[in-house]
């Protein structure tokens, strides 16, 4: 079943087909934003995009494959940021400076929108999609593990992966909370989330946090 989700039924080679796929993906995000995860059905995606169910099924076998494509793209953006920022020069910076640099770069990816929160909820409710995104999540965890190793962590690999998963969970909890807040409350949640993540990283590399 994972193989079904990780590859589209038909690759959109022509411009018209590519436009159709883009409409389906963007329409699904709009539906998530306006009506939430529970509204994601092929019929509702068809209504909001104007793309017939038959055309949708040409490129996506089911709604789970659409969700996987959207979530996978978002995760791959984050993996790309980790690789882009984790240069030899940047990793020579003090940990606090590097962490601030990485944090700002991840903000630019745009995580934290209403549709992202609902997308995450939809993923959590689908065992098939959760299983399919594991390899991409592992790339994300590996990126964080690489950073901790670069700053001298001697923890066992299993412990570092556990910490990476936990830090990612804290990040998700933080933006799930922030999206329902506003003003100073949202700002405080962001600060606390970053402080907790940084504390954990410092612990793994035997560095005392400020």
UniProtKB/TrEMBL annotation:
Question: Pfam family example for this protein?
Answer: TetR_N
Give the superkingdom in one word.
Bacteria
Q: Which UniProt keywords apply?
A: DNA-binding, Transcription, Transcription regulation
Q: Which InterPro entries match?
A: Homeodomain-like_sf, HTH-type_TetR-like_transc_reg, HTH_TetR
The residues that make up the annotated DNA-binding region are 41-60
HTH tetR-type domain span: 18-78
GO MF terms held by the record: DNA-binding transcription factor activity; transcription cis-regulatory region binding
The name under which this protein is listed is: Transcriptional regulator, TetR family
This protein's species is Colwellia psychrerythraea (strain 34H / ATCC BAA-681) (Vibrio psychroerythus)
